[in-house]
From TrEMBL:
UniProtKB keywords: GTP-binding, Nucleotide-binding, Nucleotidyltransferase, Transferase
Function comment: Guanylyltransferase that catalyzes the activation of phosphoenolpyruvate (PEP) as enolpyruvoyl-2-diphospho-5'-guanosine, via the condensation of PEP with GTP. It is involved in the biosynthesis of coenzyme F420, a hydride carrier cofactor.
Family membership: Belongs to the CofC family.
Superkingdom of source: Bacteria
Pathway(s) served: Cofactor biosynthesis; coenzyme F420 biosynthesis
Positions that bind phosphoenolpyruvate: T139, G155, S158
Listed name of the protein: Phosphoenolpyruvate guanylyltransferase
InterPro entries in the record: CofC, Nucleotide-diphossugar_trans
Molecular function per GO: phospholactate guanylyltransferase activity
EC number: 2.7.7.105
Catalytic activity: phosphoenolpyruvate + GTP + H(+) = enolpyruvoyl-2-diphospho-5'-guanosine + diphosphate
Amino acid sequence: MSWVVVVPVKGNPGAKTRLGGPGQDRARLADAFALDTVAALTAAAPVLAVFVVTGDTVLGAQLARLGAHIVPEVRDQADALNAAIVVGLAAAAAEFPTAHRAVMTGDLPALTAADVERAFVLAAGHERSFVPDADGTGTTTLLALAGVPISPRFGPGSRAAHESAGHVPLALPTRSGIRRDVDTPADLDLVERLGAGPHTSALFAAASAPHHARVPLAAPLVTSTDRPLEK
């Protein structure tokens, strides 16, 4: 079974405020999370294409080099995240009308291709399904088979909203990278222990280097400040 995946990518120096620390450091982490998420998706065998919806041209160029299709963000102040997802789903359907579809958040730095492939195997048994976050109240991934309408309802209480819309929760372990989105320092610590992708791991390594050799978290990547999309 072949899938196309839509990834909405937000970000600005005010992103991930629950992580604490300087805004530029948080933006660096958010960039790394998105890069590792998309890298894992493009490495998964069933994935035909990844469509990233973003208003950040700098990060978008980096994600395009990983193989992502970049869809310009359409700003909607009322519901920016779900509006962006709808735009991405429309772009994916136009290019791959017979493929199955998934939406995945862009903050899964511990995601692996194996995690993605396992989720798709389970999703094949349901017209609509989803992957809850590790806390059990949110959603990291929303899935639907080809031709089945999909209405994203990401945001607070998204698990209940997606279940009420007919999506079945997939039985994946809480330690799986596909359930480990990062919003808090505790989430970040656990991802570091589980093993993150190369972009996030590089930031961990820079932060733990001896003081005289330490690279500031904000230094390695260039980021854009034009990032209105919020989760």
